Protein 1
Amino acid sequence: MNEFESNHDTTLMQGDREAVRTLLSRVRQHRLRHNWSQAEMARRVHLTRATYQNFENGYGNLTLANLVRVLGVLGLTNNLAQLVPPAVEEPTLALLMQPTRQRARAKCVQPAKPERSP
């Protein structure tokens, strides 16, 4: 691994840690806004107090299902879709290689023939 790759991996890990800290801080803020202790929150989410406390302090591993339950208890599940935006379809090589479409040529309008009088 070269120096760039090592620095890049470290930067990603620091960014990941900061994202987790921000998430946990926001969960804590929402819990406190409800005026719930960690023990009360753990009871509502059906976790042990120690498991929830470790989660909120950034220790241990909480499953995705439990995270969704925590967010559900806080009324934040509607925000989950914002975590991963919909994928935007990129043009494929085949589409890029297709010839560009051109407008159809305008039809020539022929002048009307004068009507003959009888």
Protein 2
Amino acid sequence: MTFAPVKSLLVSSARSLASAADEQARQQNLAVAEGLKRQEAGLLDELIVKYQHRLMRYLLYLTGNREQAEDLFQDVWMRVLVRGAQFNGQARFETWLFTIARNMVIDLRRKRTASSLDELFETGGDDDRPMSFEVADGDPTPFDRVSNFENREQIARALLEVDTLHREVLVLRFYEELSLEEIAKVTRAHLSTVKSRLYRGMAMIRPRLERAGLKLREAE
């Protein structure tokens, strides 16, 4: 007796489901793009409700400063409202949203210093006060799956000890679950650069997580 036909059927079914999910996501992105172009009433509110936790978390880790992150949070959504017609729906909305957020962080830091782009992101936040990362979200992330309430603060502290360039890639990969290609779009970096930053970031944070009794595997 062979299970080959059953296995083949299961693989085919899984591929069909994945294809259907991809098509549904594509249609949703196109609908968002069309709604933003028409400035559809209520759409921005829906997007804020859906993405507010993820955006705030990204800004917190990118800036290392809660007050700055909160100010930028408002500015990012204003930019989405004003420039919504620029989103064409070919990429996921969150990829475009994080790109806007990142550019606004860079713009803010450029106003304060004439440093190069790398130097802007190699410096941490200028607020030394302890930060709380209790940013609630309904869907567990890979970091959440290896942690509990007590050690999530340890993960946050470990991430803040990593320089911003590598921390950003870790957050986008393991919290926001973006693909490497999507991270490259957000950061405007070559795919090879993103892979290098992820590898080095993993090497930086893994010992800290292991000391807390946590193990992290690269997202598939």
Protein 3
Amino acid sequence: MYRDVEKVAKSMSRTSQTSPVACLALQAGRVSSRVSKMMLDSMGLNGADFCTRMDSVLTFGVLVSAATTTIYMKARRRGIDVRAVRYEDLVARPLDMCRVILEFCHLPVSLADLAVRALDVDSQRNSSFAKSVIGQLKGAELTPQTRAKLNELLKKFEMPPVGEPNIIEGTLTCS
């Protein structure tokens, strides 16, 4: 599953506010590009290709988007029949998208209603990452300078700039 890169970056900046370790890591990332590599490595991603100084708290979210998209695209190029699901599509049409996903996975489409109900449950409830907590926090501002730097980074990873549609090849859709 992927999401609009700007929304990912802003969400991760809000999330970092609830974690002292993440706050510290993002501050250290302003000094050393090795921090982004270590953070991505700790998430199970190969951070070597994404070793970038984090000039903004939004940079890490862009790096996570770029890293996961790169892994997905490499898998498709190797011939693996993997498909993406766009978060915005799932939120806009949850029942239809659940049916498409279940059908792709060769699972009974009759489970779609149950899947939609499961989407309504906050998987992070009772934690500092709960939607009710994160939703109260203010996300980082996207200044023109920050946008320009993030767009340079996105271009490096062959992704569209912030604010432009990003529909990844092989995305499941219900339209």
Protein 4
Amino acid sequence: MSDTDGSTDDRRPPPDMPAVSPLDLPAESTEAQQPRRRISPKSPRQALQPEAAPPPPPRSQKARHPLVVVANFFLMSVVLVVLAGGAAYYFGTKRFNEPGPLTETTSVLVAPGADLDSISAQLQRHDVIDSPLIFSMAARFKKLESKLQAGEYLFQPAVSMRQVLDDLVSGRSVLHSVTLPEGLTSQAIVDRLNEDPVLTGDITTVPPDGALMPDTYKFTRGATRQQLIDQMERVQARALQEVWSRRAPGLPINTPEELVTLASIVEKETGRADERPRVAAVFINRLRKGMRLQSDPTVIYGIFGGAGRPPDWALTNAALEKMTPFNTYLIDGLPPSPIANPGRAALEAVANPSRTNELYFVADGTGGHAFSSTLEEHNRNVARWRQIRAEQAKAAAESPPSAATDPATGDAPADAATDEAPADAAPDGSADTN
């Protein structure tokens, strides 16, 4: 096609292309090709209703696999067990630490060899704990079931299971005690132990005098008498070794056994701690001079031995002249063995006596003794003592009678020695001894 001027229009499309492009079509023609959605009007009530949730996605085929199901089951079981265990631990620990049901102080005796379960049941019977299961589990969890100790335990009201377990493991059981005074013979000590209602068993052999250390000994219920005797022997042997190693030089004592023998005499002569070194010095000075010891307790021991003298027996001049291996009025030097069990203070006094020249002592009426270095001074002290004795006898005749023996030893007290003169009396008739 050509214009009027006969020129050709080069902008014509090629013959193989459409005459009109879709982009050149009006918008109405594009919309006409898509289906239109029909709009349904909603009522106000329908507009307020929530729309339905879309359906869940289809379950994965992997989640339905048997291995996955089993793994999920075990994982859930583990979680439940952990939660249950945590809850049980929390509440068990709370019960274990809180105050218990005990309302009054109670003593429980745990027998030797008792196991954890029997101990737990015993504690429940005495209302010390209210849950043997929690108590036993706690002991096993702490690995303490084999460390519970036998003994007698005293539990206070409202004691917790934790405190009960601590007491059983530490062995803080009730301690009983027995006091054995210095100066007792071994037979007297055995008699006292046999009278104790808490101790058990028999003593196989009475130890020799001087082999036991007097003291106050503590023990738990169930301890045997022989165990206590063995302990006293060990304590005495250890103390003697220590004292002997620290003795003063130049003593007229050759062996530890001789030290115990002289200490036993000192122990029987005075009960006052401040006098022991001085009494020991008198005997040491006599041994150095070759003088006889002339000790009344040795005479009594020679007659009655470890049984002690009867309460109604009195030391007389005839007794002083009775020959025995222990009568230091008649023998030279020390007796063959101790006459009692001395305490450590008496051992120390003999090992380190006072530095004096005194050779005599006599009771002074006050529970102590008057010491002297010469016979003349000693005779004056004896005369003073006899006057005191006469006044005491007169007062006793005017008042009800009283015991004249020492209840601890069965012997007369130090100021109740005889005032009869021994065979080697001083010229004026007074004894030249204690």
